């Protein structure tokens, strides 16, 4: 693995039509007055003319900042896993842990946040709750400007990339990432549009060391299943559709679901599922249609959701609908990591990420 120059021209070539449309949009996003912006929820915020130090209160925002410019990030939401360290910059790995809305009881450490001297703070707009409002009040007392970014669905990402890129003064960088995002989403949507409902595979999302935790259809955690032309077999509403908590199911219930494919989050469960006689009663296991979700530096599918879903959607299409979505996933993975993460993967590293 070699680390690319963060801002070198990407291998991904944007269609002329996209670029012709894009730059007028970027130019038209100038603040209404010096230092004033309108965030993605319509809220007007006065921010510094130059922004170099940013804290995001949740991982989706932090990861988006990383893709645009990791040098502006002043703190982490939680300690990094080893898998995150392998493909991220050393400077990112040594940042202080400030906390945030991460569903692990890790609140913001106000002392560490103040010491880090943020210019602005990013709030994930979709996670409106008493906790969010408390944070907003806290930032107001600290006199730190904050703004909302919408990252609830994969379709939010193109606009979010442009908005945050403009705010950071990284318009050209944002244009590159936006072009990839728009083209990728359109490719998937076009392929899925022609799939009859009866031909859409049933999918179970297995989480936990025993594979018996999952999230329901309609949850942001399982968005890619439906987006990629699958049917989430678990329909029960979880207690928190935005991300705090999963549904616990029984193996008998999974047997009744009898999914065509199983997406697996934990390596330990994936290592055992094919040899477990109980799980072998399920068609997806017998037919070896169980897939370990790629992870590194961030999960491609979920927990936390991030821009990595742009690549995860192509990976999922390649396993659910290979005949409709032929793609060289090794080449695509190398391209994506170079563009979004500034990392040049070797063939071996790309294959490892893909579980090959």
UniProtKB/TrEMBL annotation:
Chain coiled-coil ranges: none
Pfam families: Peripla_BP_2 (PF01497)
InterPro entries: ABC_Transporter_SBP, ABC_transptr_periplasmic_BD
Ranges of residues in domain Fe/B12 periplasmic-binding: 53-324
Signal peptide as annotated in the record: none
Record-linked SUPFAM superfamilies: Helical backbone' metal receptor
Cross-referenced PANTHER family: MOLYBDATE-BINDING PROTEIN MOLA, VITAMIN B12-BINDING PROTEIN
Name of protein: Periplasmic binding protein
Organism in which the protein naturally occurs: anaerobic digester metagenome
Lineage: unclassified sequences, metagenomes, ecological metagenomes
């Amino acid at each position: 693995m070699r680390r690319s120059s963060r801002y070198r021209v990407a291998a991904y070539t944007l269609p002329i039509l996209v670029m012709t449309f894009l730059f007028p949009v970027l130019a038209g996003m100038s603040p209404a007055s010096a230092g004033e912006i309108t965030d993605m929820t319509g809220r007007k915020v006065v921010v510094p003319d130059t922004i170099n130090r940013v804290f995001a209160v949740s991982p989706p925002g932090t990861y988006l900042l990383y893709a645009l410019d990791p040098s502006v990030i002043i703190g982490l939401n939680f300690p990094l896993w080893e898998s995150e360290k392998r493909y991220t910059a050393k400077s990112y790995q040594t940042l202080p842990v400030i906390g945030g809305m991460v569903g692990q009881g890790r609140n913001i450490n106000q002392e560490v946040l103040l010491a880090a001297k943020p210019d602005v703070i990013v709030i994930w707009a979709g996670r409106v709750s008493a906790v969010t409002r408390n944070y907003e009040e806290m930032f107001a007392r600290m006199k730190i400007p904050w703004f909302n970014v919408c990252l609830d669905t994969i379709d939010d990402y193109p606009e979010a990339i442009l908005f945050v890129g403009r705010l950071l003064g990284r318009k050209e960088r944002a244009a590159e990432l936006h072009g990839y995002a728009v083209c990728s989403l359109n490719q998937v949507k076009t392929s899925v549009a022609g799939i009859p409902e009866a031909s859409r595979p049933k999918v179970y999302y297995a989480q936990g060391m025993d594979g018996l935790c999952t999230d329901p259809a309609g949850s942001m955690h399982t968005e890619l299943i439906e987006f990629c032309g699958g049917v989430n077999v678990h329909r029960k509403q979880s207690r928190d559709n935005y991300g705090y908590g999963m549904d616990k199911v029984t193996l008998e219930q999974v047997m009744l679901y009898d999914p065509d494919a199983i997406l697996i989050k934990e390596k330990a469960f994936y290592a055992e599922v094919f040899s477990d006689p109980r799980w072998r009663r399920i068609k997806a296991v017998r037919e070896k249609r169980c897939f370990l979700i790629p992870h590194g530096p961030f999960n491609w599918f979920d927990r936390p959701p991030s821009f990595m879903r742009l690549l995860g959607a192509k990976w999922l299409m390649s396993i659910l609908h290979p005949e409709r979505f032929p793609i060289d996933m090794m080449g695509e993975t190398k391209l994506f990591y170079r563009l979004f993460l500034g990392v040049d993967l070797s063939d071996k590293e790309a294959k490892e990420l893909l579980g090959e």
